[in-house]
Amino acid sequence: MSGDTLGAGSFAVADYVVFALMLMVSAAVGVYFAWTGRGQRTSGDFLMGGRRLTALPVSLSLTASFMSAITVLSNPAEVYRYGASIGFYGFSYIITILVTSEVFLPVFYRLAVTSTYEYLELRFNRATRLLGTVLFIVQTILYTGIVIYAPALALNQVTGMDLWGAVISTGVVCTFYCTMVRKQQYFHFPFQLGVMLAGFLSVIVRSGGRLHFWDFDTNPLRRHTFWTITIGGTFVWVSIYGINQAQVQRYISCKSIHHARASLYINLLGLGSILLCSVFAGMCLYSVYKNCDPWTAGLVSAPDQLMPYLVMDILGDYPGLPGLFVAAAYSGSLSTVSSSINALAAVTMEDVIKPHTNVSEKHLSFISKGLSFTFGVLCIGMAGLASLMGGILQAAISIFGIIGGPLLGLFTLGILCPFANSKGALSGLVAGLVVSLWVGIGAHIYPPPPELTRPLPLTTEGCNFTTDSLNWTSTALPTQLNAITATPVHNHYNHWYSLSYLYFSPIGTIISMSVGLIISVFTGGYWQKVEPRLTLMKEDTTLYYLIKFFKDRVSA
């Protein structure tokens, strides 16, 4: 890298045009569907698309919902620093879709719940539902703050856009079209997904030696291995696809359970494509900066800013392409934030407002839109907290692990264990939350040493500039410096906190289920009668019909 690339260029007029066009299309789609969808008079229509949708648009919206700027910016940086082992997420995606399709989808679709937390009251009691709702709201607001903050931080660093201007503009556009109407999201998501993939493909022009893929070490303290990503990743993604309101309200809005199942499996193609693109983009990062690491050199203040820096560096001479990548990052945030805001509005409506009010459906629809606006403002404010959470990918997965893990255990307990009762469910949820919080906060206070995280070597030996030009106002220490100064001394007391952050979710789920089962057995749960529709029945599974099909063929 030569001295004249230190600033990595700046936005040209064409880049601003491409970026502005993306925001305008997003806003225009919201206005168009708000106008054409004026007949949506019920809150159910607003929140679930009227349960008339087919598999394809729903599958695209499922993919885009949690493929945010975190994916566009953080996955390539992860590959750059630690190697391509995140490619193992492909296995966890497959297991996740199988489990969601066979265990959670049949029950939620049969009950036709607007909020997944309605299920907790039907299966257990009101207190369990309220606690589940509160945990979901906290988790989603924290996560959405990261999603809004991520592109704003990175783009501020490399394009000179004002940080809080970027935060507010992202949040305002998301809130605007989410408040206008729900239905538009299913048809808008293909556009967002296309922009995200185009942004990735605009930078995948070369690749480098950053594979470091086949790591089968079973040590649970290691940050990323085949086992941590496949097992831990499966629990995290099942908590998103199986029980998270933002995803569940999508696939139960399909017109039949077959369309709902198909939407999940088609969505796998989208997840795989984006994962593959982000791994290749990370290799591209390394091929360009293997001899001169911008992070170690202080040219960017966090690893999450490496991708936009690369874009401005190698594509700055092609007006419009940097704008396309910026649009990809923002489009990712747009899809995720709007999903989250709508899910927050749905659970607040169904779990907090409806049980205590008696107003018409028309008024409920207006209240729902007002809630979307309120949560949008709240999430924009929460973006400030995201600056304290460290690396955005790890922070996001940690949030889903610490809070989503115990919630996954609670729902699994209700669906798979007929003798689980409300005492067991509440006790298990609280126990799982306490343990996962303890481990998660401990890991933040005592981060694991480099021998467990194993960042790959980076160098500045090939850099061609003088030290005066370096920007040492960074908010995150470079890798080598960080390893020396920022890692606390580890001893056998805090070694437990070095557990891979991907295992926060399995711990919360397993503790929640184990305590829940034990308490249920000791409090008479074995003798209780549960409505069959609230648990998984053998007729719900594809396996049942496969066995039946083969039996019929043999007997024939």
TrEMBL record:
It is found in: Cell membrane. GO terms for cellular component: extracellular exosome; plasma membrane. GO terms for molecular function: organic acid:sodium symporter activity. It is a multi-pass membrane protein. Keywords: Cell membrane, Ion transport, Membrane, Sodium, Sodium transport, Transmembrane, Transmembrane helix, Transport. InterPro entries: Na/Glc_symporter_sf, Na/solute_symporter, Sodium:Solute_Symporter_SSF. The chain crosses the membrane at residues 16-35, 55-74, 86-109, 130-151, 163-180, 187-205, 225-243, 264-289, 324-349, 370-389, 395-417, 424-446, 501-527. Its main location: membrane. GO terms for biological process: propanoate transmembrane transport. Belongs to the sodium:solute symporter (SSF) (TC 2.A.21) family. This is Solute carrier family 5 member 8. The lineage of its organism: Eukaryota, Metazoa, Chordata, Craniata, Vertebrata.
